[in-house]
Design brief:
- Among the domains are: 107 residues, no CATH class; 100 residues, no CATH class.
- The chain is 47% helix and 12% strand.
- The chain is α+β, with helices and mostly antiparallel strands.
- The radius of gyration is 25 Å and the shape is globular.
- This is Reverse transcriptase domain-containing protein.
Length: 326
């Protein structure tokens, strides 16, 4: 690896020609496959030196202590108390500095359900937030997915509006416009939907967004008294947008259940320490899987390990949600 960058030089191309050649002091070329490997090596070295995995602080799920989640340079540290979180963050900060990396305090946030007014790491104050974006998804303090669903639907609307010129074009067939909508709009809306806990009110918003897209595609004004069923009969969708989300969730569920041992499976099936509040309980992700399939967890496990039965179940559920039968 060292020989790849020994005595390397570069030049910058400008409007006035190329600059003089200069030596590359540090870093790798843009797009070099070594970049993620080197960063992961550094990150793993820092975590091991900090002793994160052996630390007592963390959240107990299914009998396992989980205190950090990492994806590239996005690192999440978790703890049950503010003191444990300060200790873990301080160790990560110290070991990062020793490895030549600096913890960006402006991009470091703390989210807690405890009444904490201020949070410091050494002399640096960390902002306390009720919501933040992690890997493109909005995470909030109460674990409610409704805000993320609203945010994704709004992003889908913006993407649909940006296609106005194409939608109004008479040179593009309706079939092509439908395929473009499914390719360039719906994936923006469904990003991360595998982890959503969708409520009945959220389903209505998703259905309303889909019909808004089809009406805009057909250029149906809001003043025209045309039923939703007639719009769907003209579009002829294979399934509703909400049904495609269910398909993605069930496929992800089966993928996780077939694993012998994984962190995702333990989080999905494991019990979190503590007691649930009195009164009506919040709907959990696994509850939506049971609700969509009308099966128990034991039956779902059997279906997940039999791929043909699993595919058949998903196909039947998706086909039953075309909304053309009602």
């Amino acid at each position: 690896m060292k020989n790849l960058y020994t005595n390397q030089q570069a030049t910058v191309k400008t409007d006035y020609g190329n600059t003089n050649w200069f030596n590359i002091g540090k870093g790798v070329r843009q797009g070099c496959i070594l970049s993620p490997y080197l960063f992961n090596l550094y990150a793993e070295h820092i975590m091991r030196k900090a002793g994160i995995e052996e630390a007592a602080g963390g959240i107990k799920i299914g009998g396992r202590n989980i205190n950090n989640l990492r994806y590239a340079d996005d690192t999440t540290i978790m703890a049950e108390t503010a003191d444990d979180l300060q200790y873990l963050l301080r160790k990560v900060k110290e070991e990062s500095a020793a490895a030549g990396l600096k913890l960006n305090m402006k991009k470091t946030f703390v989210m807690t359900n405890a009444p904490i007014q201020e949070f410091y790491i050494d002399n640096d104050q960390v902002e306390i937030v009720k919501e933040f974006i992690f890997l493109g998804s909005s995470i909030n303090i109460d674990g409610n997915c409704s805000n993320e669903i609203k945010r994704r639907l709004l992003m889908g609307r913006k993407a649909m509006v940006s296609l106005d010129k194409l939608i109004k074009s008479k040179d593009v067939s309706l079939a092509t416009k439908i395929r473009i909508t499914k390719t360039m709009v719906f994936p923006i809306t469904t990003y991360g939907c595998e982890s959503w806990t969708i409520k009945q009110a959220d389903r209505r918003k998703i259905d309303a967004f889909e019909l808004w897209c089809w009406r805009r595609l057909l250029r149906v004004p809001w003043t025209e008294k045309r039923t939703n069923k007639s719009v769907l009969q003209e579009i002829k969708p294979e399934c509703s947008l909400e049904a495609s989300m269910v398909k993605l969730k069930l496929s992800y569920f089966g993928h996780i259940m077939r694993r012998q041992a994984s962190l995702e499976k333990e989080i999905m099936l494991g019990m979190v320490g503590g007691k649930r509040r009195r009164g009506r309980q919040k709907k959990r992700w696994i509850d939506t899987i049971k609700e969509d399939t009308h099966l128990t967890l034991t039956q779902l496990n059997t279906m997940a390990h039999n791929r043909n039965m699993g595919r058949g179940l998903i196909h039947r559920i998706v086909k039953s949600r075309t909304r053309l039968n009602g």
